Each structure stands twice: as C-alpha cells, then as structure tokens.
Amino acid sequence: MSERRTRASWLPLSVVFALAVAAVQACGSSGPPSGFNDGDGGSSGSSGSSGSSGSSGSSGNVFGDDGGLAGHVLGITPATAALTITDKTKSVQQVFAATLDGAPLTSQVTWSLDTYAEGSITNAGTFTTTGIVGGNVAVTVTWGKLKATAKLAVAVDIKETVLQGPGDPGPSGGNGGALGGPPQPDPGGVNATKILYPYDQTVMPRGLTAPLLQFSPGSIPPEDALVTMTAPLFSWKGLIHVQVPGTPQFSIPQDIWDGALQTAGGTKLDVSVTKAAAGIAYGPAKTSIIVAPASLKGAVYYMTYQTPNNGLYSVKPGVRQPAKLLIPGCVVCHSVSANGSRLATGADQAGNAAQAGVYNVGADGSQTQLTQSPAGLGGDSRGLSFATFTPDGQFVMRSQNNFWGGVNQQAWKINDVAKTLDPATVTGLGPNVAALVPSISPDTKHYAFTNGPGETPAFGTPSRSVSLMDLNVNAATSTLAFSNRQLLLDNGASGAVTKFVNFLPDPNFIVLQEGENYLTSYDMMLPTWGPNSSFETATGRLYMIKAATKEHIELATLNAGNAAIDKQRNYEPFPLPVTAGGYFWIVFTSIREYGNVYQGAAAQKQLWVAAISTTAGPGVDPSHPPFYLPNQSSTKNERGAWALEPCHKDGLTCETGDECCNGFCRPSDPNDPKSPKVCQPPPVGSCSQTSEKCTGDGDCCDAALGTRCIGGFCTVKGPA
C-alpha cells in the first residue's frame, strides 16, 4: 500500500472528497485533490479499449463510482464536435477538456478513442486527424474509476484537379467552368455514357489497389470530366482531363480510394462521372459500390499458358504488389492447401516432369520443392495435377488412374523430415467411387466431387452430378476414412456438366461450374474448351448448392457482365478459406469484358473476385457483381487457387486473428489499443473478436448482434 493511500485513509472518503472539491472551486486547481484516494493508488488507470459508451452532454456521463464518488460528475467539453478535412495534405485538430463537477481537470486523466482510423488524441486532449478518413468517433476521458464520453464527427470534403502525368494539361477553362455547374442530360439516349467498370452494386473490400474507372464515350466523346465519390461523412470531387476520349479511363488516386473505403465500410460509396465537351457538361453517369469493412487475406495462385510468360504465379489481393512468377514453364493443374503451407503441381511436358510434386510455402511466400510426384501413377498421369490437399497440408490425394480423378483415390502423408510422400490408408472409396476433381471442406470433415464413370452400380449421371461424403482424418494412423455418400445434384444425361466443386468456409455451401459446351475427353473435366486448342469457347456458369437442403441456385448476378455472352464465360470457382467483412469470397476465371480494356473479341481469360452473402434466404441468389483482381499479370490467366498465407507465430505482427497460428490477434500492449497488433493468446475467459478463432457462435463477442462462428472464425453479420 502506498504512503498516499495510507494518509488518505485517515479521514472518511466522502469528507476528503468534499474538502478536495471545495479546494478545486476556491483555488481553481486543475488537478485532483491532494491526498485523494481514487481507488487506484492515485494512478490514472489504463486506457483500455475505449469502446464504452454513454450519453453525452455538457457534463458527460459517469460510468462507475468508488465509494464517495457517487453523485460527482466527470465531463468533457465540448460534448459534441465536428471537423472537416478539406485539404488532404493538412491535418485538422479539435481540443477537448476534462471537467470534474464543472471545474477544469487536467492532471492524471487519460484520453482514448473507440477508433483510431480517423486520428489520434494526446494526453492533453488534442485530437488530430490522420490521413483523409471520415467517421464518428467516441472520445473518452478516464480519471480513476470515472469515465465520460464526447462525440466527434470527422468529415472529408475535398475538391481537386487531378493531373495524370507530366504532360497532362488538365481540364480546359470552358469545360472546367461547365463542370462547376449543373450538367445537361446526356443526349445519347440508350447510348449515353455509362460506367463500364466497376459494376453497379459490386461489393469491394478495403486494401485493394484503386480500380481503373472506365466509362463509355457515348454520342459525345468527353474531353474532360468531373469524377465524384460520396458516402456518409465523405465527399471527393476530382476534375480530370480525358486523355483518350474514345476509351475514357481514370485511375482513382490511391489515397482517395483508401480514405473513401475506410470511411464507408459497411455502407455504399456512390461514384459518378459528369463529362464535358466544347464547354458543355452532360450527365452524370452513376454506379454504387458496397464497401465490405475488411481486407481480403491470403494469396491467389494462378496459371498462364501464354508463352513466353507461361508458368505459375501468385498475387495477393490485399497487398499492392505485382503478381510474382513462382515456377516457370508448363506446370499444370496446381493446387494449394487451405492454410497456404503446401503447393502441388503437375507437368504437361516431359521437360517439366522434375518440377511436378509437392512444395513447401514459406512465411515470405517463397516455395521450395519438397518431393517430386509419387511413382506408379497410371493412366494420364501428369504428376500431381489436380491434387487434393487436406486443409492443414498434412495429406495429399490423387486418383491412381488419371490426373483429373476417377476410381482408386490414393493418399500420401507428407513427410517433411524424410522429404517423402508416405502412402496413407484410404477407406470407403476404392474402385466403386469415381471422384472427379474432388475437394475437402475447410473443417476437414467433408469430401465433394463430380461423379465419374465406371462405378457399379452408377451413382448419379457421370460428369453431370455431384456427391458429398463424410471424412474422418486420423493423422496418428495415417488413415482417411470416407463414408455416408449422398447425391446432392444430378443434371441428367442431357443436362449441364458439373465440375470444380469447392466448399465455402461454411461446409454447408458448395460452389461449382456448370456448362453445356465441353471437350469430351478427360471425362469433360477440362474447365474451358474451344477450337484449335484455344480453350476459350466452352460455356461456364457458376452455381451454389446448399448441402443441407440440396438447393441448387445459379449465381446469376455474379455470372452477368456488360456483354450478354459474359454470363456463359465463368469458370473454376475457388473460395477464400475464411470470411471477410461478413461475406464469403470466391476468385474465378472469366472470359468477360473488362470495361474498355478488353472488349468484344479482345476479351481474354482473367481472374475476377466476387462476394457471396452469408445470410441469403432460400431461393435467393446470394452473389454480387464481381471485380477484376488487381495486380494480376496482363497475360491470359486461369485457375486461381486461393489459400491463406502460412500462419504467423506468437509475437509476429498481424491484422486479424485468422492470420495467426493460435487464431488470435491483439494489441501488443493490452493497455494501449494503439499499439501494434501481434499474434498472442487472449486473456483467459475473454470472448473472440471478429475474425478470431471460435468453436461456436457463443464464443464471439458480438453474438447478440448477429456475429456467427463460420469456418472456425467469428464473422460479422453481413447483409442478405
């Protein structure tokens, strides 16, 4: 016990407090009363997470008391405040002051915020904006066991002329003046200027490279334009010169894009383009983006067969770096374990045979070949093409007969020490189950595949039906036991071919490709097909199956594009193994138009990403319009297997718990919410935050608000 606390105990606390308040009022002291026992040995207390709330007013709100503190009020002045950022190069400040029963209080107080996205606050109560992010901020002051909260609204309202290079002259004076006033209706009618990309109502996460805004010229090609982005507490207007009027494009400034999405998380961001020519403004053309309040995780591993750049690449959706070439050459039909620790490749040519096999993926994204493909594979071998990993990367599977699947599925346990593939025991499959291009659910408990030929008796129409089985993996005995086969879908002998059946993070939901045009060889399992081996004219649409009810739904919103043919050109859906921002996410191959970059006959295989709602009701298409995967190479790209990055060990930096091996990511200093986050176990008995590990809904902190445990991680409630 401290000397201060001992002396304070000589008198009743209520007497000490009354004398202290009198001294404050008489002498104008700004500190706590001398010898005052605040219940914390005279300390100011920890700032905590500052997520507490309460009513605001000129005197704030008392959150707790300690004996004689009842009836005394800690407050903040002002109780409400508003700031507006009008220049992205300059910060804006707001000074808050603490009061005790209306008198100034400056000593031993602690200031904190419920969010530090908009700015920071000093120990003296001065809030300073950071960057160009708007939002509502709860400002909390703590003194002993008393707390009070004020409300601060930070808005962004920026207008600027954006020059797109050293030779950009900017908008002309006449067009600039016209764009400053009300525009005329676009005279193009059905051919009026339209925003081609991003699609209207696309769900976009934070952290992406800013999109290339693309719009059509209409009947009057634009010379200059006004681009606006608006959301609650955010407004940006940029005057631009249109460099190529026939194919107008504009790269949204990265800082503006980041600020807009940080501000608008969970709401809509409205984007408009007003064009101008010959001193007259027309429009505007409009689109709206739904902002997911999260960033995407992991890496997408994709293949291009386009020489001379053919090979296996990786690109990280949440990192602004160009795609990286991992393995050059024709290493075909790769796969990745869900946890990102293993990679498998095949070989289409004899010269690439040595590259086929299993690779370890390092924490830095590097890959090291552990072993080549196992010997003795029959049929059309091609090594470990279309291999199936358990999510933890301990086991890898492939059909004994053919690389795309079939009967006699075999498994190997990956031995890191001996650098070998050790045969494992498989039960429940054998010669009577023909599994084409199979997959294992993220929880390792389920196995789904297209039914193949050769079964006796047949279980569903070969190549046109889907099965689901239970799976039990016993690592100690190296046994994979399959059971309880169910027929989820059968399109019939004249129906669409089903392929690339993959689980979403919730194993009750399965996505797949279906189509009517196909190459008849390989049991129709090649994802795309066309004349002269171009592999680009097969039809492909993406669907979802709900395993519990066998409901079969076309992801029609995802399939649709700017051209009518786009809805038939979607292939190979691969999910992100975890949710983000309340959504499932898939990456898929599409030969659709990309704005005015790839139009008509110039459309080529590229990777696209789409959000899928986690809460859509029966019969409702849960998909949203897709967006172009940023930073992929400009080659023809396909088969974007999506995996998490290898998990971070305790003590390493993180953003969310799903990046950590232990499943939890918390501030390195528990008393300072601004401190860098690191992977570390949470305090005993604490609940799991968004994207942290869970075993049931009750583990999640916001379960009462609709947060659910999906795929082993807490997922916020997303819109339907």
Distance between the termini: 56 Å
Number of domains: 4
What share of the residues lie within helices?
A: under 10%
Mean of the pLDDT scores?
A: 89
Classify the fold: give the CATH topology of the largest domain. Neuraminidase
The CATH C-level name of the largest domain is: Mainly Beta
Spatial shape: globular
| CATH architecture annotation name of the largest domain | 6 Propeller
Q: Which stretches of 5+ consecutive residues score pLDDT under 50?
A: 1-65
Topology, please?
Elements: H1 3-8, H2 13-27, E1 74-77, E2 80-85, E3 93-95, E4 97-100, E5 103-105, E6 110-113, E7 119-121, E8 126-129, E9 135-143, E10 146-161, H3 173-179, E11 195-197, E12 202-206, E13 212-215, E14 224-231, E15 234-241, E16 249-251, H4 254-263, E17 268-277, E18 280-295, E19 299-304, E20 311-315, E21 324-328, E22 335-336, E23 342-345, E24 357-361, E25 367-372, E26 388-389, E27 395-399, E28 405-406, E29 409-415, E30 420-427, E31 435-440, E32 446-451, E33 465-474, E34 479-490, E35 497-503, E36 509-515, E37 541-546, E38 551-554, H5 556-559, E39 570-575, E40 583-590, E41 606-613, E42 627-628, E43 637-643, E44 665-667, E45 677-679, E46 708-710, E47 713-715
Parallel strand pairs: 2-10, 10-15, 12-18, 30-34
Antiparallel strand pairs: 1-4, 3-8, 4-5, 6-9, 7-8, 9-10, 11-13, 13-16, 14-15, 14-17, 17-18, 19-20, 19-43, 20-21, 22-23, 23-24, 24-25, 26-27, 27-29, 28-31, 29-30, 31-32, 32-33, 33-34, 35-36, 36-37, 37-38, 39-40, 40-41, 41-42, 44-45, 46-47
